[in-house]
Amino acid sequence: MDNVIIAKDLSLSYSNNETIINKATFSISSGSFVFITGASGSGKSTLLKSLFGALNPKQGSLVVGGVELNGVSRSKLNFLRRHLGIVFQDYKLVKEWSIEKNIMLPLLINGYVKSVALNQVEKLLKHVRLNHQTGKYPFELSGGEQQRVAMARALAHNPILILADEPTGNLDEYSSQLIWNLLEGANNQLKTTVIVVTHHIPKSLNVDYKHFHIEYGSIHEVR
Amino acid sequence: MKSVKNHLSLVVALLSILFSMQVFFIVERSIDAYKVNLSNNYSVIAVSKKELSSDEFKGINKIISNAEELSPDSVIKRLTSDMKSTNVELLKLTLPKFYKLSLTYYPTPQEIKKLRSDLLGSGSITKVEDFSHNHDTVYKLLLLFKKVVALFAIVVLIVTVLLIFKELRIWQYKHNERMTIMGLFGAALWLRSAVLFRLAIVDALVASFLAFGVFMYLSSSAWVAEQFNNIGINVLIFNPIEDFLIILGVAITISILLASLIVLGHKEEA
């Protein structure tokens, strides 16, 4: 199986130069479901940021979807991001756009015709059980519903890789379960690689997953 | 409602710039028209030892448009009640020639000074009366008026630019989030900024057409026309093609500059 992520001697730090991740070497194969855990401030969100190019590696190599992210050009980064689905704890929905327009965003960026994109959005809204909320804006939805919109947006363009940063961190049990089901479904049915940064790995998960733990700047493969 | 509010702040700022600019143009035109009016009523008197033609005067200084010889008859009549006609003819021959000089435009005090020295330096002209005191007073008044209006336009411009910069910060905050989110999904810069540029161009068009409407109304207003008639001038308040193109150009340039500053100042956060 091909590796969708290959990190070699990867070091990450912010502008204050304090090293967050120190010379980590790991790989993630295509189609796998991966959890990244660690204490608060251990660097798990930092690692995730580096996977979608929001943080440039300080040292080493980081290849995601065949694109070397150390010193990547903006156009190559845009190309990579068009094939990623990203889910954040704070949803990152465009407030002044309807939920349909939010979900449509990656489709339009990827050059889908509007009518095709609308059709896809309709299917996705059903998939995330929000078809009764059409025409609404993010602020009119609950946190759980907003996260489902963000999930639909992440799934819309059939990405090669879904990156989720504590996707259930702010949600109740029911909404959390729905999000896990959606991530599971993407991995099981579409064979999409899923990487989730979280504090707690859910017990009722029907996927064979890998588990990395970050401690003192090092990444250990637990499972 | 929210959409109207989004547009209103930039439209108002643009309108104030366009208004002050067009008012400045109107004042410029009024002053030019008033200068033409003044130049029609203003002339210089020159006294020459010998007869000079209009072309000879034009050769001395290009500002002279026409020279009209003044008849000395009315003066002679008062002096010669007891004189014989042969003596009167003799007196006429010895009298210098008086000329009223019309000018092509209303000159500056410096130009009057030069005209005076050119005329006196020509050899045959012995005296020049340029009524410079009256001329200078009127001219300085015109300059003062022009400066006051220019100052007013500059103050409006500065205040508006400050308003626009405040608006820029609000826009930067408002658009930054959307641009960041679009960037996270790989949108190219042009796509991320498209909404912003569209908004800026729409606002520029709205402000331009509003200004167009107001100035078209003013140019057809009988009250405004009467005010200009009262000071004896006829001014083009608004040229629907040329002035509108200038207004549109200025509005679009400012809006695009504003949008570009936001795009350049955009910092991606994740």
- Radius of gyration of chain A (CA) equals 17 Å
* Count of individual beta strands of chain B: 4
- How much strand of chain B? 5-15%
The residue ranges of chain B in which pLDDT falls below 50 over 5 or more consecutive positions are none
How many structural units, i.e. domains of chain B?
A: 2
So what's the oligomer here?
Answer: heterodimer
* Strand proportion of chain A: 25-35%
- Strand order in the largest sheet of chain A: 6-7-8-3-9-10
Structure report:
The complex is a heterodimer of chains A (223) and B (270). Chain A has 223 residues and is an alpha/beta fold. Chain A contains 6 helices and 10 strands. Chain A has helices at 44-51, 74-81, 99-109, 114-127, 143-155, 173-190, and strands spanning 3-13, 19-29, 33-38, 59-64, 67-68, 84-87, 161-165, 193-197, 209-215, 218-221. In chain A, the strands form 2 sheets. A 6-stranded mixed beta sheet of chain A has the order 6-7-8-3-9-10, with helices on both faces. Chain A has a 4-stranded antiparallel beta sheet with strand order 2-1-4-5, covered by helices on one side. In chain A, helix 3 crosses helix 4 (114-127) and helix 5 (143-155) packs parallel to helix 6 (173-190). The relative contact order of chain A is 0.20. The mean pLDDT of chain A is 91. Chain B is an alpha+beta fold. Chain B folds into 2 domains: 2-37 and 153-264, no CATH class; 43-130, Alpha-Beta Plaits (2-Layer Sandwich). In chain B, helix 1 packs across helix 7 (189-219) and helix 1 crosses helix 9. The longest helix of chain B is centred in the middle third of the chain and has 53 residues, at 132-184. The model of chain B has no long low-confidence stretch (mean pLDDT 83). Chains A and B meet through helix 2 and helix 3 of A and helix 6 of B.
